[in-house]
Amino acid sequence: MPETMEALAGNDPIYARLEDQIDWYDRKSRSAQHIFKRIKIVEILAAAMIPFLAAAPLPHEKLVTAGLGVLITILEGILHLNQYQQLWGSYRSTCEGLKHEKYTYLAHAGPYASVADPHGLLAERVESLVSQEHAQWSSFQQQVGKGSGPDGS
Questions:
Q1: How far is CA 5 from CA 2, 104, 121, 128, 145, in A?
Q2: What pLDDT shows up at residue 33?
Q3: What is the largest CA-CA distance in the chain?
Q4: Are 87 and 141 in contact (CB under 8 A)?
Q5: Is the dihedral angle over the CA atoms 4, 132, 27, 11 positive or is it negative?
Q6: Distance (Å, rounded) from C-alpha 11 to C-alpha 5?
Q7: What is the pLDDT, as a whole number, of residue 36?
Q8: Distances 90 to 28, 48, 95, 117 between C-alpha atoms, Å
Q9: How far apart are CA 75 and CA 91, in angstroms?
Q10: Which residue of 10, 50, 106, 116 has the fewest CB atoms within a 10 Å radius of its CB?
Q11: Are the C-beta atoms of 125 and 101 separated by less than 8 Å?
Protein backbone atom coordinates (compact mmCIF):
# COMPACT_ATOMS: atom_id res chain seq x y z
CA MET A 1 0.00 0.00 0.00
CA PRO A 2 1.45 3.47 -0.90
CA GLU A 3 2.44 5.58 2.09
CA THR A 4 1.82 9.15 0.96
CA MET A 5 -1.47 10.84 0.19
CA GLU A 6 -0.14 11.91 -3.20
CA ALA A 7 0.79 8.35 -4.08
CA LEU A 8 -2.61 7.13 -2.91
CA ALA A 9 -4.50 9.73 -4.91
CA GLY A 10 -2.46 9.12 -8.04
CA ASN A 11 -2.56 5.33 -8.11
CA ASP A 12 -5.71 4.33 -6.28
CA PRO A 13 -9.21 4.76 -7.76
CA ILE A 14 -10.84 4.30 -4.34
CA TYR A 15 -8.73 7.00 -2.74
CA ALA A 16 -9.18 9.23 -5.80
CA ARG A 17 -12.96 8.82 -5.45
CA LEU A 18 -12.74 9.69 -1.76
CA GLU A 19 -10.78 12.87 -2.54
CA ASP A 20 -13.20 13.75 -5.36
CA GLN A 21 -16.23 13.30 -3.09
CA ILE A 22 -14.67 15.35 -0.27
CA ASP A 23 -13.98 18.14 -2.75
CA TRP A 24 -17.50 17.95 -4.27
CA TYR A 25 -19.33 17.99 -0.93
CA ASP A 26 -17.10 20.78 0.38
CA ARG A 27 -17.77 22.96 -2.69
CA LYS A 28 -21.52 22.27 -2.66
CA SER A 29 -21.76 22.93 1.07
CA ARG A 30 -19.97 26.27 0.74
CA SER A 31 -22.11 27.22 -2.26
CA ALA A 32 -25.37 26.42 -0.46
CA GLN A 33 -24.16 28.34 2.60
CA HIS A 34 -23.27 31.43 0.54
CA ILE A 35 -26.56 31.41 -1.36
CA PHE A 36 -28.58 30.92 1.84
CA LYS A 37 -26.79 33.74 3.67
CA ARG A 38 -27.02 36.16 0.75
CA ILE A 39 -30.75 35.60 0.35
CA LYS A 40 -31.28 35.98 4.10
CA ILE A 41 -29.30 39.23 4.17
CA VAL A 42 -31.43 40.67 1.36
CA GLU A 43 -34.58 39.55 3.22
CA ILE A 44 -33.40 41.20 6.45
CA LEU A 45 -32.53 44.44 4.67
CA ALA A 46 -35.87 44.49 2.84
CA ALA A 47 -37.79 43.79 6.04
CA ALA A 48 -35.88 46.52 7.89
CA MET A 49 -36.71 49.04 5.15
CA ILE A 50 -40.46 48.48 5.31
CA PRO A 51 -41.14 50.36 8.60
CA PHE A 52 -38.76 53.12 7.58
CA LEU A 53 -40.45 53.61 4.21
CA ALA A 54 -43.93 53.36 5.73
CA ALA A 55 -43.12 56.27 8.03
CA ALA A 56 -41.27 58.38 5.47
CA PRO A 57 -43.25 60.84 3.34
CA LEU A 58 -41.79 59.67 0.04
CA PRO A 59 -43.53 59.47 -3.34
CA HIS A 60 -44.80 55.97 -4.11
CA GLU A 61 -43.96 54.78 -0.58
CA LYS A 62 -46.85 52.31 -0.56
CA LEU A 63 -45.77 50.82 -3.86
CA VAL A 64 -42.15 50.48 -2.71
CA THR A 65 -43.25 49.02 0.64
CA ALA A 66 -45.51 46.52 -1.12
CA GLY A 67 -42.67 45.66 -3.51
CA LEU A 68 -40.37 44.91 -0.60
CA GLY A 69 -43.03 42.64 0.89
CA VAL A 70 -43.33 40.83 -2.42
CA LEU A 71 -39.55 40.52 -2.63
CA ILE A 72 -39.40 38.97 0.85
CA THR A 73 -42.13 36.50 -0.07
CA ILE A 74 -40.35 35.50 -3.29
CA LEU A 75 -36.99 35.08 -1.54
CA GLU A 76 -38.54 33.00 1.23
CA GLY A 77 -40.24 30.85 -1.44
CA ILE A 78 -36.90 30.31 -3.18
CA LEU A 79 -35.29 29.29 0.13
CA HIS A 80 -38.13 26.88 0.86
CA LEU A 81 -38.08 25.40 -2.62
CA ASN A 82 -34.32 24.93 -2.90
CA GLN A 83 -33.60 24.21 0.79
CA TYR A 84 -30.16 25.80 0.77
CA GLN A 85 -29.85 25.69 4.57
CA GLN A 86 -30.64 21.96 4.72
CA LEU A 87 -28.31 21.19 1.80
CA TRP A 88 -25.56 23.18 3.46
CA GLY A 89 -25.86 21.08 6.62
CA SER A 90 -26.29 17.77 4.85
CA TYR A 91 -23.39 18.32 2.46
CA ARG A 92 -21.14 19.58 5.26
CA SER A 93 -21.98 16.54 7.39
CA THR A 94 -21.19 14.15 4.53
CA CYS A 95 -17.95 16.00 3.75
CA GLU A 96 -16.83 15.79 7.37
CA GLY A 97 -17.77 12.10 7.53
CA LEU A 98 -15.67 11.44 4.44
CA LYS A 99 -12.74 13.35 5.94
CA HIS A 100 -13.08 11.27 9.09
CA GLU A 101 -12.87 8.09 7.02
CA LYS A 102 -9.85 9.41 5.16
CA TYR A 103 -7.84 10.24 8.25
CA THR A 104 -8.89 7.13 10.15
CA TYR A 105 -7.83 5.04 7.14
CA LEU A 106 -4.50 6.85 6.76
CA ALA A 107 -3.78 6.37 10.47
CA HIS A 108 -4.70 2.68 10.27
CA ALA A 109 -6.98 3.35 13.24
CA GLY A 110 -10.52 2.49 14.28
CA PRO A 111 -12.15 -0.10 12.05
CA TYR A 112 -9.12 -0.10 9.73
CA ALA A 113 -6.70 -1.26 12.41
CA SER A 114 -7.84 -4.85 12.73
CA VAL A 115 -9.43 -5.77 9.41
CA ALA A 116 -7.78 -8.00 6.81
CA ASP A 117 -8.60 -5.63 3.90
CA PRO A 118 -8.62 -2.00 5.07
CA HIS A 119 -8.67 -0.80 1.47
CA GLY A 120 -11.87 -2.71 0.73
CA LEU A 121 -13.40 -1.43 3.97
CA LEU A 122 -12.56 2.14 2.93
CA ALA A 123 -14.38 1.63 -0.36
CA GLU A 124 -17.44 0.22 1.42
CA ARG A 125 -17.57 2.99 4.01
CA VAL A 126 -17.07 5.81 1.47
CA GLU A 127 -19.79 4.45 -0.78
CA SER A 128 -22.05 3.95 2.23
CA LEU A 129 -21.68 7.60 3.27
CA VAL A 130 -22.31 8.87 -0.25
CA SER A 131 -25.24 6.51 -0.69
CA GLN A 132 -26.81 7.60 2.62
CA GLU A 133 -26.56 11.26 1.65
CA HIS A 134 -28.06 10.53 -1.75
CA ALA A 135 -30.95 8.62 -0.15
CA GLN A 136 -31.63 11.56 2.18
CA TRP A 137 -31.53 13.97 -0.76
CA SER A 138 -33.92 11.79 -2.79
CA SER A 139 -36.30 11.45 0.14
CA PHE A 140 -36.25 15.19 0.68
CA GLN A 141 -36.89 15.88 -3.01
CA GLN A 142 -39.92 13.59 -2.89
CA GLN A 143 -41.23 15.42 0.19
CA VAL A 144 -40.76 18.80 -1.45
CA GLY A 145 -42.45 17.49 -4.60
CA LYS A 146 -45.44 16.21 -2.65
CA GLY A 147 -45.86 19.59 -1.01
CA SER A 148 -45.65 21.52 -4.25
CA GLY A 149 -49.00 20.64 -5.71
CA PRO A 150 -51.59 17.92 -6.09
CA ASP A 151 -49.60 16.15 -8.81
CA GLY A 152 -46.18 16.70 -7.17
CA SER A 153 -45.13 19.40 -9.63
A1: 8, 13, 18, 22, 42
A2: 98
A3: 78
A4: no
A5: positive
A6: 10
A7: 98
A8: 10, 30, 9, 29
A9: 22
A10: 116
A11: yes
pLDDT value of residue 66 = 93
Find out whether 112 and 104 touch, Cβ atoms under 8 Å. Answer: yes
**Residue 86 to residue 24: CA distance in whole angstroms:** 16
What lies within 8 Å, CB to CB, of 95 at 6+ separation is 22, 25, 26, 29
The pLDDT of residue 134 is 81
Total-model pTM: 0.79
Q: 24-32, long-range: CB within 8 Å, 24+ apart, which pairs?
A: 25/91, 25/92, 25/94, 25/95, 25/98, 25/133, 26/91, 26/95, 28/87, 28/91, 29/87, 29/88, 29/91, 29/92, 29/95, 32/84, 32/85, 32/87, 32/88, 32/91
How many whole angstroms separate alpha carbon 112 and alpha carbon 120?
10
pLDDT at 153: 41
